[in-house]
């Protein structure tokens, strides 16, 4: 290794040849892709800015076996409107034994979990909670 001299600019070392190249595709899980497609279709059908799910939230939902029904989707959208009307920024939505952390400003679910997984956990950076009854 050469000594570093102050005032000089250094280029990064080249990467090894085993890294992904620009043309290679990374394999994705089918359930995630299906959920993303369903989410896009729902937002196009409703014609309004409905609640979207971040990539992280979709991955968590897939890993935890959480499915969002049409009824739950409508209640989440209603909860989003309620949270917006109260000036919320980051909310915890509780419905059907599920918990969703939602960025209200961006209409996006950040993460999702079952209430059983919330035991012994602290949820931070939320300013409100919305209880969504069936």
Gyration radius, rounded: 21 Å
The whole-number mean of residue pLDDT values reads: 80
Largest sheet strand order: 1-4-3-2-5
Q: What is the CA-CA span between the terminal residues?
A: 65 Å
Number of β-strand runs: 5
Q: CATH top level of the domain at 49-131?
A: Alpha Beta
The rough form would be described as elongated
Largest β sheet strand count, sense and barrel closure: 5 strands, mixed
Q: How is this structure best described in words?
A:
The relative contact order is 0.15. The model has no long low-confidence stretch (mean pLDDT 80). The protein has helices spanning 30-46, 55-64, 70-85; strands at residues 52-53, 90-95, 98-103, 108-114, 128-131. Helices cover 32% and strands 19% of the residues. It has a five-stranded mixed sheet. It has a domain at 49-131: YaeB-like fold (2-Layer Sandwich), CATH 3.30.2310. Helix 1 (30-46) packs across helix 2 (55-64). The protein is of the alpha/beta class and 134 residues long. It has three helices and five strands, in the order H-E-H-H-E-E-E-E.
